[in-house]
Write a structure and sequence with these properties.
This protein is mainly alpha-helical and 422 residues long. It is globular, with a radius of gyration of 21 Å. The longest helix is centred in the middle third of the chain and has 33 residues. It is 70% helix and 1% strand.
């Protein structure tokens, strides 16, 4: 009998990839629902982008899937094009093409121009949007794609489902039990336990709905010339947002593994993934900070971990579709509310006394524009405002690569500690 000896490093990558895949499942389904495209779109995106970006991307230990920023952006697009989803998928496809172009033009280095206060305000805003838009399914109400709609629904609270609130609260309670993480990823444990409880007690609560039990099919449809300009401008905005989101996570991966990623190759890999995700009906994706940190801490060091993560999701799609469609929306909402809380850096309030007042102004401005306006505009305004205030106050901005990298290391270490505390 022939024995196949797997290298120790490969064993760690395989185990890490399986762990990341288990954690990714509820997040992919939840973000798919939050995007307005449905749980299958989230799963398709996680598989397609996860596989292609793992192979062609510039950060070997990165894990990809739907993220808070991309989901919020796509949800806003879906809300404006409910009767013509072909426009949404065209935007996702073109987003991927723009990311490839950005990579070929070597625009990856531009990530260093985004100041820390802008990133802090942006991530806090995204966290707030995720939490607010998931409160409605947590209460048993219809999911809403943006803050205004969510707040409007909460004013009346008509149709609140007590069973949804109970199962959502149990989900949050389980997610707070971090000791479970030593045995099994706590988000997956919560997903299984709460879904099983709903079936056991025959609870009458909304579920994820039908999940296709096979591989996705091509969803291309003709686009009118009138819609072309809109598609191009929105796709460019989504590409810039997804690229910024992804490269920030790459910096964190660098700090954890003591390596250096290739920003331009990373953009090309993500672009290929998003292009094909849109073609096959998946949502837009980027690098997931939570999944990447979990992947690296479990021992991942090569691309094999990301490939294994995607293959595991493919197996789930092919063989467990009927099981996945029974997952309650309130459970997914509970998981995403926890993700939203993790994204927000609450330590910012403790640092108010020591942080320059100009940084506080920039952070709060970006937070407000992100929550009630446009995510891409928030980043642009934040960068411009930060530069203007610095110039006005006579403070010279740090421009040397060494200083930029030191700031990135401090930020990434802080975010790693937050994700670990989870």
């Amino acid at each position: 009998m022939i024995k196949i000896k797997i290298p120790t490093s490969a064993k760690y990558d395989i185990f890490a990839g399986i762990t990341a895949g288990v954690i990714a499942l509820p997040m992919a389904l939840g973000f798919g629902v939050a995007s307005g495209l449905g749980p299958a779109a989230g799963l398709y995106g996680a598989i397609i982008v996860g596989l292609l970006a793992a192979i062609f991307g510039g950060t070997p230990t990165q894990i990809y899937g739907p993220t808070g920023p991309t989901t919020v952006f796509v949800a806003a697009i879906v809300a404006l094009n409910l009767n013509n989803l072909s426009v949404v998928f065209a935007i996702i496809i073109l987003c991927g093409i723009f990311q490839i172009i950005l990579g070929l033009c070597k625009a990856g280095a531009l990530i260093h121009l985004v100041p820390k206060p802008v990133v802090s305000g942006f991530m806090a805003g995204v966290g707030c949007i995720i939490i607010m838009t998931q409160i409605t399914p947590f209460l048993g109400l219809t999911s809403q794609g943006n803050m205004i709609q969510a707040l409007t629904s909460l004013l009346t609270l008509e149709g609140v489902n007590i069973q949804c609130i109970i199962i959502g609260a149990v989900t949050l309670l389980i997610l707070s039990l971090k000791k479970i993480d030593k045995i099994i990823p706590v988000s997956f444990f919560a997903l299984v336990v709460c879904t099983g409880a709903c079936k056991l007690f025959n609870l009458n609560i909304p579920t994820s709905g039908a999940i296709p039990s096979g591989l996705p099919s091509i969803t291309l449809a003709p686009i009118s010339l009138e819609a072309l300009f809109y598609i191009i401008t929105v796709a460019l905005g989504l590409a810039l947002l997804a690229s910024t989101d992804g490269l920030l996570t790459s910096l964190i991966a660098d700090n954890m593994t003591k390596t250096k990623h290739d920003s331009n190759k990373e953009l090309i890999g993500q672009g290929l993934g998003n292009m094909f995700s849109g073609i096959f009906g998946g949502t837009a994706c980027s690098s997931s900070t939570i999944l990447t940190v979990a992947n690296i801490e479990t021992g991942a060091r090569t691309r094999l971990s990301g490939i294994v993560h995607a293959l595991l999701l493919i197996m789930i799609l092919l063989f467990l579709g009927p099981v996945v469609q029974a997952i309650p929306l309130a459970v997914l909402a509970g998981i995403l509310i926890k993700v939203g809380l993790d994204v927000i850096y609450f330590g910012f309030f403790k640092e108010l006394a020591s942080v320059p007042k100009s940084d506080i102004v920039v952070t709060l401005a970006v937070l407000a524009i992100t929550v009630f306006g446009n995510l891409l505009v928030a980043v642009g305004v934040g960068v411009a405002l930060h530069a203007f205030i610095r110039r006005l106050s006579g403070v010279t901005m740090q421009t040397t690569q060494t200083k930029v990298e030191n700031t990135e290391i401090e930020d990434s270490e802080r975010l790693i500690r937050r994700v670990r505390r989870g």
